[in-house]
Specification:
Helices cover 54% and strands 12% of the residues. With 283 residues, it is α/β, with parallel strands linked by helices. It has 3 domains: 3-92, Helix Hairpins; 106-167, no CATH class; 172-282, Rossmann fold (3-Layer(aba) Sandwich). The strands form 2 sheets. It has a 4-stranded parallel β-sheet with strand order 6-5-4-7, with helices on both faces. The relative contact order is 0.07.
């Protein structure tokens, strides 16, 4: 039995277990908030409800509201496991389709392949498969998730055969902004600058990383503001080791609220224009 067959057998076994868990929970008297009477329904109705877990994960049934603790726990587990089984089956099916498409596309004669779907994991998985099967093929994959992009960016050496080149649109845009505008501005100013990053999403984090790595000597103070700035900053710092210079001042708040800009001004120690000014870097 090959590896793919083992995967399907394992997934089928898991599916049977999930069905058994849900049916046992209904038989044990567990009722749900949006479909009352499920324990008293006939077997076909309970099978219908259980099959729905594979797609909706219990969203059409509501939460378990009655019954003993152990059967309720089993139903909760089925709620989460059923859509996971469906997802893995779909992903494996797509990957099989992609693998069977390689020969049809005659990629050994292609100059390169760009993987630009909205699914980062699919881009990486297909990219790695292409790199192994066609080591001389120029192979690039877009990864929008910043942390995943950082983790995958250094796979292989720059000129190594079979390398998967990973890129991020936010990174490309941020580098263009920095090298074409900000870098020259910092060089032309005699004193150190005060910088405000209004918004700390994917683009804002990428800009901050470039500023920290390449312009920290030209910056006196930096303020990062976002509606969840503290959480995003801690997540960013956990993923990206500190470079030169101190950490920024972090302000949590709605950027459309004047009070947020007042707190930014206090942290910065200098006037800050409210929304509409031209001295900000927006997300």
């Amino acid at each position: 039995m090959d590896r793919s067959s083992v995967g399907w057998v394992a997934r089928g076994s898991a599916l049977a277990v999930v069905f058994a868990m849900a049916l046992y929970a209904f038989a044990a008297g567990v009722d749900v908030s949006d479909r009352p009477g499920a324990p008293d329904a006939d077997l076909l109705t309970q099978l219908y409800h259980t099959a729905g877990l594979l797609v909706l994960g219990g969203m059409d049934l509501g939460t378990p509201v009655s019954g003993a603790f152990a059967p309720r726990a089993l139903l909760w587990a089925a709620y989460f496991l059923a859509p996971l089984i469906t997802t893995t089956a779909v992903v494996e099916g797509v990957l099989r389709l992609v693998a069977s498409t390689f020969d049809v596309l005659a990629l050994e004669h292609a100059a390169g392949v760009a993987l630009l779907t909205e699914d980062d994991l699919l881009n990486l998985e297909v990219g790695f498969r292409l790199a192994r099967r066609y080591p001389r093929l120029s192979n690039v994959a877009h990864v929008s998730n910043i942390s995943l992009n950082r983790a995958a960016a250094d796979v292989g050496a720059p000129n190594e055969a079979g390398r998967l080149h990973v890129f991020n649109a936010h990174r490309v845009s941020a580098e263009h902004l920095f090298h074409n505008y900000l870098e020259n501005y910092f060089e032309l100013t005699d004193s150190k600058d005060r910088v405000v990053l209004a918004g700390f999403g994917r683009f804002g984090q990428t800009i901050y990383e470039l500023l920290e790595q390449q312009a920290s000597a030209d910056i006196a103070t930096m303020v990062v503001a976002d509606h969840t700035a503290s959480v995003r900053w801690r997540t960013f710092r956990a993923q990206v080791p500190a470079a030169n210079g101190p950490d920024p001042e972090v302000v949590d708040g709605d950027l459309s609220d004047p009070q947020t800009w007042l707190r930014m001004k206090q942290r910065l120690g200098a006037p800050v224009d409210p929304p509409g000014g031209d001295r900000r870097l927006r997300r």
